[in-house]
Amino acid sequence: MKKYSDLEYLKLSKGERFKYKFLSFFAAIPVAIGNLFKGIGGWFKKAGLSIANEAKDIWTTFVQGDWKTKLSFLIMGFGCLARGQILRGLLFLAFELVFIGYMVLMGAEYLGLLSTLGTKGPYQMTEKIELMPGRFREVVKTVTYADDPTIHNSFKILLYGVLTIFFIVAFVYTWRVNVKQNKIAEGILRSGKKLKSGKDDLRSMVDDKFHATLLALPLTGILLFTVLPLVFMILVAFTNYSSAHNGGETGLFHWVGLQNFQTLFSWDVGGVNYSATFGEILLWTLIWAFFATFTNYFLGIAVAMIINKKGIRLKKLWRTVLIMTIAIPQFISLLYVSKMFTLNGLFNGFLMDLGIIHTAIDFWGTPTLARVMVIIINIWIGIPYLMLIATGILMNIPADLYESAKIDGASGWKQFSKITLPYMLFITGPYLLTSFTGNMNNFNVIYLLTGGGPHVNLSNGAGNPGDTDLLITWLFNITQKGFGEDGAQYYLASVIGILVFIVVAVISLIVYNLLPSVKNEEDFQ
Amino acid sequence: MKNKNQIPATILLVLGAVLTAGGIFLLVNRFSPMWSFSHKYMTDNAIFVMLGILGLFLGVVGLLLSRSLFKEGREIQEGEGLKQHMGMKASARISNTVIYVLLVLISIVWLVPFFCIVVQSFRVNPTGMTRYLFNNPDAALKEGLTIRFGLDNYRRLFQETKFPRWYLNTFIIAVVVAVVQTIIVLCMSYTLSRFRFKLRKPLMQFMLILGMFPGMLTMIILYQVLKDIGLAGANAMPGLILVYVASSGMGYYVSKGFFDTIPKSLDEAARIDGATRAQVLYKIILPLAKPIVIYTVLTAFMGPWGDFVFAKYVTGVTPEAWNVAVGLQQWLSTSTNISENYTMFCAGGVIVAIPVVILFMCLQKYYVEGVTGGAVKG
Amino acid sequence: MASVKLTNVKKVYDNNVVAVHDFNLDIKDKEFVVFVGPSGCGKSTTLRMVAGLEDISGGTVEIDGEVVNDLQPKDRNIAMVFQNYALYPHMSVYDNIAFSLRLQKMPEDVIYSKVTNAAEILGITDYLMRKPRALSGGQRQRVAIGRAMVRDSKVFLMDEPLSNLDAKLRNQMRAEIILLRQKLNTTFIYVTHDQTEAMTLGDRIVIMKDGYIQQVGTPAEVFEKPTNLFVAEFIGAPKMNIVKTDLVKEGNRYFVTPCGSRIEVTGEKGELLNEKCVPSGSILLGVRPEHMKLAFAPGENTMSARLEVNEMMGSELHLHVFTEDGTRWIVRVPTIDLTQEQRASLKNGAQVYITFEGKVMHFFDPETEKNLIY
């Protein structure tokens, strides 16, 4: 594509300019993707280099260090203890002991089993039960994890296996810090200064290291309750984990490679066309996210603008009426509104009463109508929030922009399209993106309004997909509803989860790189 | 001439009063079949309800407008704003009228569902769903229905169901979550706003990527783990709190956006004045961040009232451990449940909504400040 | 009361932008040093490194002989006044000033006497119970200074403290800072982009550009002996006229030839040229506007020029004139030196003649832009 210089561009007609912009937008996409890969490559290169540097540094520390340092390589914290930094030394030592203890007691075993996810599953056993004295009866019983602790539990093996890997990474890192500490301490002692005491360390926790103190709790929570489960669930996509194979109770699960991805992308699995289902739900998810985001956005701005118009009174009243919707828990308002639109709901009764219709409309029974209704009700839910955001931004638009536009002779509409809208779009660009991806995963609205239904075009397969199902609600349903002999197919849910992530990530990256607020940060400042 | 506003204001006052009275009359009329003059002649029940609501609302708006006009009139007399007021053109008056009509319509659309839920929560008979809000002669004749209103649903709610237990569960969870989550979110956002440490950027990017995974995915394993350590089912409350709170650090965007607006030179001045980083936080930043602290508390408190999926998953079939969302949703889950419990759901919804709405309205100012100050910049 | 020593101080930001290169400076006890330069020259960064608000990427900062690189700001015993005042909005003026003393756990009666004393000096006693937002810009500035004053710190840092004030207030506060300095009698480091402030306040001025020190010297030194073109143009208003011309050496005498004239270099400058054996060649000639002479008739060594802009400043006129070769000169003439008729004749397009004396010239190398003789 030809690139125009600024002056050449200015000579173009309006249509040509639009075409040029349109084309350059799409021309930029491969570049953005290319940059992404370049970035990833660069990251790997940097990581490799820094690992090499670390290794070199560890080596020199060992070679040049004194005996205290050398011993610290084996006994963590020894150097600190020997040099009088008791608190640090004890912490290092304690960490090492806990680590060794964990590995000996649990870690090593689970790590060893991680490659197979367990070999000894639940088995059946005939048991003699004494019904009456002297009279026995043989009963076939399934021995599970709960009865026989030697039975492997794939779930636990995977979970603790991952946890052990986390732990090992943490240990290697701490060990590295321990080595570095020795080097630093030697340097300080050599230059004739005093080492930091335990008291100094404690003091620095509320001062120069305060950020570490503050982050410790939140990050631990995120690590244990988000990162660890996510890693686990990503791994699940490569197993056959389901409610029929959940470990020590109903049978072991094991690694299956990419088989689950194949299932989702194949035309026929036991009479179900998963790739078509996935494609259709993905399409609707994107359509939904688009409409849910932009209808709310523009209508929210419109409502904010008319409420904030000069000369309109009772601004607070109007705002309060709308804000009520935010305050009421969504499960109440959504459930209630969904019932309002059922066949024997208030809305149908109201229309019939007015004589507008004579038979009730099945709002939730026809796919297209249900989809439209979901979007409309989402507007009802979403406008108040956007109205608030838009109000905040509108009040921040410098008044002189409008004054100069008025002097230049701009009409009300021109002022809106040339000042208000670009300003809003500029400021809210990142918000729009997050709101788009948020809507893709907007579980509540869909689940509480339709539960995924109606099941007209889609109904087959795991999770009993429906016409208003988003990927996220489908995923949820798969984990809830058994299907076939596998029961609830957690592995399939996991595969869908990974695909949702990929879609969201790709969209975010592309849009983010094209956003004006990222590209020209200074435009409106 | 005393005041240019006096005439329109008086007209609005009278109109408002008439409309309010009319609206109330029409609605009360619907409540009580005894007073109903429409019993024999009118079948279009909805029109009356609609007129009633509209009249009531317009009446209130009229009254409020007239009050504000009177007030402004007094100010104009004192000389302020006279010019601006006189300068208002006829076209502006027309467009403002259109906007008022629009705003009234919007308000009605937004309020009607809440109005309906309140009305239905008082309906004693029938307890299932109806197409009619109030007594409908037509339906009464055809379906043999006589709608009665009373406080029965509320009595049943507290005497015959586990609703009080659910309410207590939810309340305890909400309070604990509000406290702990606020602390965690503030720690996180303050740190990311104020400190420049080596891992800051990677950390934020990492959390951005984490956020792109559907959170629902982790539910399966969290449930299994909670079950393993005995925090599912009947003992679900600590488990739920743990899960709500643990990952809340990821929702730091809004408050970080707010912290970013507090000038950094304040921190710097305080540090030079001899404050440690911790002292900077609680002596300088926190007093200035009052709106965002309240915003965070409010949103954290409101979260557990609405959570339904995870609570249902974790508490399972133990009604004692349910929260209000799970309990109320269950009343609408099958058609038999609906026909017995629909109005009780409405009553429950009202009871749940009232305290949250009151709290929200009281702290609305801070919420708005939080949203507009933090959300966009985050 | 302390000396400050910066040795090879360097600042590199995360994105590998170097803000300060190899900064060396020895600030004596009780000295008033001003860092001056255009925005982005690294002056504020340097100050903030002294304060401990920025990490030091390389080199050392010493206060009173002690290396403070790894000390937190609170442990450096410094006071600082910020450009935007940085008053704590939720505290009254009294609490603002008392904040640092309370952190030191001083008894309240000592705090009271210190704060009221400072308020007395700064004339803000009446506002002690007000919140900062109820104060005017000048009052806020005083509070900020008061907050720094009560600390009895070793070094007093000021980061463009006057640039948020309007011109009149700025002049007034400048005078007050001079008084304050006499009262406090401590070491000052003052950052500004305004050369007037630098000249009037500093014992020594550090002129910076792009992270490099251009010149360090007393106000007189940097004005009379700028080491390079940048300093010459930066110090003095209106800025120095710079003309590309030839330097001609004839025996022991030097001449410059701007626009067809031929003016001999005299006085100290001529001697120095001789001493350094500067050869003939192309140079950049600098003459300050106030050293230019205006004539209404051609005379010895005059250049004929056309008047383009006449700025009447009250006590003096700034005349922008163009010589025939298209060079622009600014000539600063005291109003009092001109007769009524002469002033009336100075209209746009008027024909004037300009010249200058041989002892007022500055010579710069056109390539390196260094001063040829200093």
Task: Describe what you observe in this structure.
Chain A has 525 residues and is mainly alpha-helical. Chain A has three domains: 51 residues; 191 residues, no CATH class; 246 residues, MetI-like (MetI-like fold, Orthogonal Bundle), CATH 1.10.3720. Chain A has a two-stranded antiparallel ribbon with strand order 1-2. In chain A, a hairpin with a 2-residue loop joins strand 1 and strand 2. In chain B, helix 7 crosses helix 11. Chain B has 378 residues and is mostly helical. Helix content of chain B is 74%, strand content 1%. The longest helix of chain B is centred in the first third of the chain and has 33 residues. The radius of gyration of chain B is 27 Å and the shape is flat. In chain C, helix 2 packs across helix 3, helix 2 packs parallel to helix 4 and helix 3 crosses helix 4. Chain C is globular, with a radius of gyration of 25 Å. Chain C has ten helices and 20 strands. The longest helix of chain C has 18 residues. Chain C is of the alpha+beta class. In chain C, the strands form four sheets. In chain C, strands 6-7-8-3-9-10 form a six-stranded mixed β-sheet, sandwiched between helices. A five-stranded antiparallel β-sheet of chain C has the order 13-12-11-14-20.
Task: Give the spatial strand order of the biggest sheet of chain C.
Answer: 6-7-8-3-9-10
Gross morphology of chain C is globular
Order of strands, widest sheet of chain B: 1-2
From the coordinates shown, what is the CATH architecture of the largest domain in chain B?
Answer: Orthogonal Bundle
Distance between the termini of chain C: 33 Å
Integer average pLDDT of chain C: 90
User: What is the tally of helical segments of chain B?
Assistant: 18
Radius of gyration of chain C: 25 Å
* Whole-number tally of structural domains of chain B: 2
Count of spatially separate domains of chain C: 2
- The fourth-level CATH homologous superfamily of the largest domain in chain B is MetI-like
- Average pLDDT of chain B, rounded to a whole number, is 80
Q: What is the element string of chain B, with H for helices and E for strands?
A: HHHHEHEHHHHHHHHHHHHH
Low-confidence stretches of chain B: 34-44, 79-87
